[in-house]
Amino acid sequence: MNKVCLIGRLTAKPELRYTGSNIATTRFTLAVNRSFTNAQGQREADFINMLAWRKTAELICNYFDKGSLIGIDGRIQTGSFDDKDGNKRYTTEVVVENVYFIESKGQSQGRSMGMESSASVSPYDYQNNVPTGMNVEEDPFADFGDSVSIDDDFLE
Length: 156
Fold this sequence. Notes:
five-stranded mixed beta barrel; CATH 2.40.50.140; 156 residues; two-stranded antiparallel ribbon; mainly beta
């Protein structure tokens, strides 16, 4: 099985290009934080080459910018080529199959305008799979104000 799931930030604005047969494509790099810190207490990142095709490429180029937090799933693809000196070079990239919006447009724009505070975090707690700041013990509809009734014949 060849399956990759990543969440990271775009290192540059992705550019949409078209092949000779008019197929949309984009290549970009995703900075993915490691789950541990180094000896100095800093979190390092891996910079992973990505490739997307067709509608997926168009979506990425239209809705994401440099620094955008993005989720992807796809597959690893390897290849090789001979450089100008005749040396064999090897490549590894992730071919993007699905894209996920991880932060809101407002969060992304605020960060790009320098309005992100140091306390700002991703809107999602990936460990517990809940939005950050949400107490899962609380009733999210507690202050809704109105009662809701559903007739038993609703599904018929």
